[in-house]
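INTERNAL AUDIT FORM
Audit reference: QA-55
Scope: verify that the stored structure record matches its stored sequence.
Auditor: D.O.
Record contents follow.
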Amino acid sequence: MFLASLGVAGLAPSTARAQQARRPGKARVAVLGLTPSAESLSKAFKQGLGDLGFVDGQNTAVEFRDADGRPERLPEIAAELVRSGPDVLFARGGGALSALQRATRTIPIVAVDLESDPVARGFVRNLAQPGGNITGVFLDLPQMSGKQLQILKEVLPATSRVAVLGDPVFNGPQFQATDAAARSLSMQPQRLDVRVSQDFESAMDAASRAQAHAVLLLSSPLVFFHRAEIGALALKRRLPAVSMFVEFAEAGGLMAYGPSLRESFRRAGGFVGRILQGAKPAEMPVERPATFELVVNQKTARALGLTVPASVMSRADRVVE
């Protein structure tokens, strides 16, 4: 399924032009995330940079830093990165973006943030004219969880209790939208807050004790990074689980419906490249993911004793066997 977005087509000038638009020497890009960056996402980000002539290790140096899953460390690392004086900062997720915003209002920041409403959170003035030093790719579709619940209801028509796992700070709007969507589908949502990786097992235990029929995982860097572990925890407790991240279904979760994170990172690399060419983030419209995929893990379905109906399988972009 494809949704309209603000495009970036036609922006592929030569390396020579790219180098002319910034100060002499190697371009410096600093990347901050709550968890270590997945190799596939780092590769996609560098591809976006490379498409505009900025090649890591040649005319560009990309430094990756993370807080090892500890949100309290983000402000300290953000301050260190700002003091190092990079040309552009790249924030992976809302927590990293908040920390970088507090650390600088002058160094350009590009973000991939699938949790936050960028206007409501004060990251940008509006989507068309951000007006500050921040731009990037934001999902800003809290109602997506409603679509995920609809698909879950097709697979499990008798579902009446669903556990909803998410971050209490950055998933606030998603919790609200999920609660409304669940009740419209005659489901009773059980909110379970997850702040650090150690919370996942206790949350799954709580869902099992409450006799939840399924689990919905809201978007967060922690969910993405621990996707295989979460899938295993859900399977052990016989809980069908659905996430936004297609990689979750690839790693053992039952289903996923959401945007391509790899494509979002590639586009973020393009944002950074354009800034290195001289573009100003204040004038670069915020983009939304354009491509959404449905992935079903048939192996997990069989392990749970589920038969995914043909109506869902016919819409699946990929099936994991």
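Auditor finding: record pair retrieved intact. Confidence is low (pLDDT under 50) at residues 1-22.
Action required: none
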